[in-house]
Amino acid sequence: MIKDLLFTSGEGKILEGYVGETAFCLYFRELHPFWSYATEEDFEGGFAKIIGNKILFCLTTACGQGGIVVLWNAETKEIEHISEASYCVAAGLSSETIYTLHYVSNYVVEGHFELWKIPVGIIDADREGKKIVANLSQLDVQYNGDCSALKLVVSKGQIRISLNDRCFTYDALQS
Fold first, then answer.
1. Residue ranges of the domains in the chain?
2. The Cα angle at residue 160 between residues 155 and 164, in degrees rounded to 5
3. pTM for this one?
4. Which residues of 45-75 are buried (b: 16+ CB within 10 A; e: fewer)?
């Protein structure tokens, strides 16, 4: 069981924590061969969540315009997935699929949420998933960029996304 997880704790570390009593660390330099922006200097934000013995996390750069989603096995210390995830603000995992929620907002595009999916096992930071919902208008609220306010849960074929008092449920089997 993973405990005491720290996300971007400094000294070049993306993650650190414990599996049982054994300490682990994942460093930016370990992701750099896969994504050239995996540096402390380029890092601007992201999130991490524990799913069993794995950690699903996202790193973003350039105001979200660049990003990756990563699945890392804390027991084996192996990267199991890396794919493109610009503007990613939340993620969830089913047995075979990673679902990502993106808040796309820049000087050309009015802010809106999109839901994407990609098969687990990709190791390509440029590989995009498939957009399955282009605009989650059900979540139309003033989003302030706080990833901790968002919840994305995948369970029994359903994807549930909540933000403040708004909620959206999507049947993952239809995508």
1. 2-145
2. 140
3. 0.92
4. bbbbbeeeebbbbbbbbeebebbbbbbbbbe
Beta strands 2-10 and 13-19, pairing class: antiparallel
What is the predicted pLDDT for the residue at 144? 76
Q: Which residues pair with residue 95 across a beta bridge?
A: none
Range with the lowest mean pLDDT among 43-47, 55-59, 80-84, 140-144?
Answer: 140-144
pLDDT in tens, 65-79: 999 999 999 999 999
Task: Report CA Rg, the chain.
Answer: 15
- Give the long-range contacts of residues 9-17, CB within 8 A, separation 24 or more: 12/40, 14/38, 14/57, 14/59, 15/48, 15/55, 15/57, 15/72, 15/74, 17/74
